Amino acid sequence: MILRFLCLFSLAVPSLFAQAVKVSPEWFRTPEFRKKFVGSYGFLPKVEPKVDQEEAALIAELSEILSAQRYKEAETRLLAFIKERKNPVDPEVEAKDVSAALVFTLGNLYYQNGRTAEAESAYKTAIKRFPEYRRAHKNLALLYARSDRMTQAKPHLIKAMELGDADHLSYGLLGHAMLAEEKALAAEAAFRQAYLTNPDEKDWQVGLVQALLVKEDWAQAASMMQSLIDDNPADPVMWKQQANCYIQMGDVMRAAENYEVLRLKGIADEASLNTLGDIYSNQEEPLLALGAYLSAIRLSDTVDVDRTLKSAGYLLQLEAPQEAAKLMATLRAKAGETLSKDQKVAAFVVESDIADAEKRYENAAELLKQALLVSPASGESRLKLGEMYTKLAEEATDDEKIKTLKVEARTAFKQATGDTDPKVGYKANLRLASMLVKAQKYTEALPLIEEAIRLKTGGKESIEQYKRRVERAAARQREREERLEQKRRETREALEKTEEAEAKAGEEKKAKDAKIKEAKEGDGKSGAQDDEKKEGE
Questions:
Q1: What is the 3-state secondary structure (H, E, C) of 147-191?
Q2: How far apart are CA 357 and CA 397, in angstroms?
Q3: CA 156: distance to chain centroid?
Q4: What is the predicted pLDDT for the residue at 11?
Q5: pLDDT tens digit string along 476-494?
Q6: Other CB atoms within 10 Å distance of the CB of residue 128
Q7: Which conformational region is residue 69 in: left (phi greater than 0), alpha (psi within -120 to 50 degrees), or beta?
Q8: The pTM is what?
Q9: First CA to last CA across the chain, in angstroms?
Q10: Is the Cβ–Cβ distance between 240 and 267 less than 8 Å?
Q11: How many angstroms separate the CA atoms of 39 and 33, rounded?
């Protein structure tokens, strides 16, 4: 039972970890980011490009403007300086470009004023003029990271770090870049370094958790999540992801505890409650599962019909038809007439399964007929209807009714054999073949079994063994029929010989009688002549 239900989680859980956690856009608006970025207007003369006296004077002027956060004014002043340097008014002054340091500063101002395309171009120009420009590499990487272009950010981050930049921001962004390339081990190392240098930054904690999830290190990820939960117990995301880690570890009841906490706090969503119901189904607790499933339905404004039908199916697998019926009744009451055509059919099928589980075969058959009225092409409905007719035939006592039900069952199975769903076609062929085998029509059953084998997915050993048994039975049946036919032929031949002998004897007798008669007639005629002769004499 446990193995059967664990597959529910193997399908649902990985989707929660499939996408890498991105750097929060809010981070780029924090005072710390602004401080670091604005601080990069300064210069590091030992490791970055030098400036001449005119540029140094401009830098001093810009420092006062920037300290007052008048970025637009600073941009205008710098552009005017660059224009004057390229096109000096004094014809005796030589035209020249500004240093990479001022181009970099212009890029910062563009960035600060929301002109990211111009900022990107300025940073690239600064790097071209001075390839070892550490902060130009760093700020270009930040620009790329802010627009979620982590692949482009990565080489500039690495270059800046090679040049001596090693703050938590660089390591954290590098971790995200590595995650984007699914390099979980490198991402973990980068996030750990970022977390080590700034343990209060939530983004790096979340990034580290993500790296551990990609590595499938469920225990460490769950442990790391606990600190995030402690910091913000009202945030349901980490509660749910920690629960998913417990599921992957096989500790499903710890996962249930997380979902129950969310339910008690009033922050559980429909998906969480459905997963909680699945866990209780896994533990063979149908009443607890029903409670979770009903809570999921009541919580949602628009009921997830397909998910609720699946949940009812899980309850049926637990042999809990009454709980499944309550869930279906709640679904009907909330969904009303909003069900689509396919959902109506699926609902009738589930309700027929409930009736079948409660041995109400006639009710089950009527529900399946309603499904076929909605969608005559529903192969699954026809297949199940054939099964209901078979069960009704087994219960019937009237020979005529049994015969009629078996005919209806065979008809339903035959119609379902050509369904586009291979699973339905497989079952229909197999069911019809089984009926023919019971009727000892082995030769007719074999093509159906062969078609079932063709449609079967997965292991085919059992059905192939079944085919061999039917083949042997068909062979024995043919031998019996051949022996019987041989006896019939011999009997016919003996009868024919007897009839021929009797006919021949009759003919011979007739011939003999004719000769005797002729002889008698000849003797009579001769005597008459003798009498006439005597009279003449």
A1: CCCHHHHHHHHHHHHHCCCCCHHHHHHHHHHHHHCCCHHHHHHHH
A2: 22
A3: 38
A4: 30
A5: 988 988 888 888 888 888 8
A6: 12
A7: left
A8: 0.68
A9: 129
A10: no
A11: 10
